[in-house]
Amino acid sequence: MEDLLRPIYQEYTSDSDTLGAILIEKKKPDSPITDNFDVILLIIVNNLETNWQEKHYEFNGKTAVMHAVTENLLLKWIDTNGYRKALEWIMAGKTIFDRDQYVARLKEQLRSFPHDRRDLRKVIEFGKLLKSYTEVKDLYGTEQYKDAFSRMVHSLHYLARLAVIERGYYPEVTLWNQVKKIDPEVYKLYEELIESNEDVAKRVHLMILAADFAISRRAKVSAKHLLDIMATKQDAWSFEEIKQHPGVKPYELDLAAILNYLIEKRIITTEKIETKAESVYKRKYKMNTEER
User: Fold this and answer.
1) Residues 57, 31, 73, 106: what is their CA dihedral angle, to the nearest 10 degrees?
2) Non-local CB neighbours of 270 within 8 Å, separated by 6+ positions
3) What CATH superfamily classification does 115-220 receive?
4) Which residues partner with 281 through β-bridges?
5) What is the CATH T-level fold of the domain 224-287, as seen in this structure?
6) CATH code for 2-110?
7) Gap between the Cα atoms of 124 and 133, Å rounded
8) Per-residue pLDDT tens for 190-247?
9) Could you report the per-residue pLDDT of 81-130, keeping only the tens digit for each?
């Protein structure tokens, strides 16, 4: 198969801008990792006219797709879970071109999961978890129990991803199989929600209580990326200042939810700044030195 596709990817490997090429073959009839194509070609380059080019092919009754992706976009996908399959392509795929050992170094870096990348991924998943969990409580409070149950499944999924990242691993597609080995406590929550004989409303109520504790005890370590940014100055931050910090960009949509939760848990505090409107104050945020 590689020989048949060589003329296609050689167009890239002959270019000095190309860093590496990886081939991933379909291993089973239903293959979400390859979108059911028989083979994936991932080409990593320095520069492209567009950050991501995708081309589809047929040969000898089989199908193939080639993804040509800039290094910057690929690393963004990895750091922010922007395109989950890309990580598995790199880790499970066969290297067919490697300029100056770029792919080999990338694979090793992903295996080690550096702490700075780990902290970023934790706060991203934490923000999604908080929003999802808030929706669960709102749905439960309005007696929309089936919707609350569905949303709780999503919440536990975010919690599971967070647990995996805490242990220094990237979450896999087969997440619950991974969590069962890494964090049995979180896995047990999922089992209790799915397999309990209680009615739906009771299951959701019990899981709200359990999830509240699980989220609360992870708050500070999950928000470390944001807290480290806020600790870079002693003065309080306006929301605009925090949001405009380049490090916050990957989770800016969940930033308000994260800040409000950290205030609730007294991990950060607020300051009120007078405005021109009487009795209306601008809110600023700073680290709670007693908690730091």
Assistant:
1) -110
2) 236, 263, 283, 284, 285, 286
3) Nucleotidyltransferases  domain 2 (1.20.120.330)
4) 274
5) Arc Repressor Mutant, subunit A (1.10.10)
6) 3.30.460.10
7) 14
8) 999 999 999 999 999 999 999 999 999 999 999 999 999 999 998 999 999 999 999 9
9) 888 889 989 998 999 999 999 999 999 998 888 899 999 999 999 999 99
